[in-house]
Amino acid sequence: MTPPDACDLLTIGHSNLPADRFVTLLRNAGVTTVADVRSVPFSRRFPWFSGKALAERLMREGIAYMPLGEGLGGRPRDPKLYCDGVADYDAMAKTPEFRADLDRVIDDMRYTRLCLMCAEREPLDCHRCLLVSRALAARGVKPCHILGDGTIEPHAATEARLLKLAGGGDADLFGDPAGRLAEAYHRRAGKMAARAKP
Question: In the CATH scheme, what is the code of domain 4-192?
Answer without folding.
Answer: 3.90.190
